[in-house]
Design goal:
By secondary structure, this protein is α+β, with helices and mostly antiparallel strands. It has four helices and twelve strands, in the order βαββββαβββββαββα. It has helices at residues 10-17, 88-100, 174-183, 222-232; strands at 7-8, 25-26, 34-38, 49-51, 56-60, 108-116, 119-136, 139-148, 151-157, 160-165, 197-201, 217-221. It is globular.
């Protein structure tokens, strides 16, 4: 099963989720869990950012479709489509409102991050805790707050979600991931493999290690990551 920190291709990511991830926001798509795709790369279309030392993700909503607006970046991000159906913004917004009213538990969301062309990282499971609109230039955009959780989605059968406790994790900042990728040449530091890679904490978080410094993160292949984990245990 995929773990936070795993590096994955887009096709493998789609296979993992069981549907084609063409949109950045996917609320309970096809009866499965909720998934978002994020990016903090230079030139990314939306302004996503992390706060609270990687524990909180502030995610920007998505623009109107091109067939709804001539220039999507010039109009408010929509809550509903022209036909009156909720957009993905609307679905996430309603879920956040119901959570804040204590009508529903926080929506569990799997987060994937694009760090380079063709290279994605699984950032783990987050809980949708808040949503609002704010001004961005001459228009309004949606903002969503996701907080990292100690739970992971282990299996899904229609609307049934099984949870498993994990040691607490923090999202490794994008800048750290990119610097580690460059420093380690996109290969396992132990064997030089470029397949099934993982961003590994040299000193585990549970033992006082940090996610915030390049010096404590390295690339390991799945085999050597597992060997290290077994040795620690």
């Amino acid at each position: 099963m995929i773990q936070p920190g795993d590096i994955i291709s887009h096709s493998a990511m789609c296979m993992e989720e069981g549907f084609s991830l063409q949109k950045g926001m996917n609320f309970q798509c096809k009866g499965r869990t909720t998934v978002i795709l994020m990016s903090q790369r230079k030139g990314a279309p939306y302004s996503d950012k992390t706060e609270n030392e990687g524990k909180t993700l502030i995610y920007e909503g998505h623009d109107a479709q091109k067939n709804w607006a001539k220039i999507p970046k010039n109009v408010d991000q929509p809550l509903k489509s022209p036909s009156g159906k909720l957009t993905e913004n609307g679905k996430f917004f309603n879920a956040a409102v119901k959570y804040k009213k204590k009508e529903l538990a926080a929506e569990l969301v799997k987060v994937y991050e694009k760090i380079k062309d063709g290279i994605w990282v699984y950032n783990g499971v987050f809980e949708l805790k808040d949503a609002w609109q704010e001004k961005s230039g001459r228009r309004k955009v949606f903002k969503f707050q996701f907080d990292i959780t100690d739970k992971t989605i282990e299996s899904i059968s229609q609307n049934v979600v099984t949870l498993k406790d994990l040691a607490h994790n923090r999202m490794i900042p994008t800048s750290v991931k990119l610097e580690v990728w460059r420093r380690d040449n996109g290969k396992c530091v132990t064997c030089g493999s470029s397949d099934n890679l993982h961003f590994d904490h040299i000193l585990p978080f549970s033992k006082g290690g940090t996610s915030l410094k390049v010096e404590n993160i390295q690339l390991l292949c799945a085999r050597h990551n597992l060997q290290k984990r077994d040795n620690i245990i």
